[in-house]
Predict the 3D structure of the following.
Amino acid sequence: MGTFPKGFLWGAATSSYQVEGNNNNCDWWEWEKKTNHEQSGAACRHYELYEQDFDLAKELGHNAHRFSIGWSRVEPQEGVFSESEIEHYRRVIRALKERGLEPVVTLHHFTNPLWLVKLGGWEKNKVQDYFLRYVKKIVDALSQDVRFWITINEPLIYVSHCYIMGVWPPQEKSTWKAKQVENNLLKSHIKAYNLIHGIYRNKNIPSVFVSFAKNMQAFVPYNNSWLNKLAVYLRNKFFNFEFVEQAINKSSLDFIGINYYSRSLVNAKNPGFHDLFLRTANDENIKKNSLGWDIYPQGLYDLLVKLKKFKLPVMISENGICTSDDNLRWEYIREHLKSLAQAMSEGVEVWGYLYWSLLDNFEWDKGFGPRFGLIEVDYQNYKRNVRGSARKLAEVCRTGVVIEPPINNGTN
């Protein structure tokens, strides 16, 4: 059994492009058309149905919700902001607050305005100025009703998928460009952190908490060879912790946002770059989600214990599973919450747990196939159907207690 304190933030997350629909002024929309990829189209029609979706979140006992601003919506042309789109997000935040849901607002969740891409995107240092101008406009407009800001979602996933593996737009494979982009993301976060705090000071708004959402994996050695131990150390250092440490060194994190899904079974066979940083093994004996990712709740506990040294509170900004088996979804949630409760009982300060995702949605290069939602979306008519796992999580949200399942000993 695991228990959670009163005031703990319970909820789920979404991102603008994946749920809103018809976000036709950004790089992903253009890329989908150019590559004949499955198109996001109307997505979940959350742009117009958000109040209905927040009603369901409230019904499910949530008291927080993470969502993102569509940069390409609010700044459709360079330096030209759409007041009507900013007003839309103001209404979204009010709708959350009216239902008792704490807004956790993400400023950059993978997608970029087309005008920014044409100016060189995150490869160019000038992007820092563009991002800061956007952040200032949005935070100025929304600060009165927002306490939690996430500047950038999964910066190293953005770097790896766009500039190392080259599977996301702009589909580059360049170590040099990858490093440029990473540097610009880090510097943009640090500057945004200081800017946001400055805005809140100037407005005399008492509290604001700023972070990024950092994807972390549990790196587990396939065997205890010295090469695997070295590879695990290096992957932890450079993938999980370096970006966090650099931000902390610049005093630019109020909490650590963690997106945790899975483990990586490390299987280095020689001391080359590929083996030390990329080679993995497959364990057929472990349960997996529909994308083949290992289900490994222990990894969340292990990471939280390692993060304790930073002496900062943590928010689980994403954790979830895509599966057609809703019993497996609940098992995944339950076991991760138990790992979370265990870490908290050992002194790790955790502010909240946000499941990914509130809704089934458009899962980037994987399209609409993966089903992560607490709420099923019928893409034929956009009807919502609350899954049984969401009802079980709702009980935890209401009671703060995760109850162990009964032991099945084979008798009636």
Observations:
- The longest strand covers residues 209-221.
- The chain has a mean pLDDT of 97.
- The two ends are 24 Å apart (CA to CA).
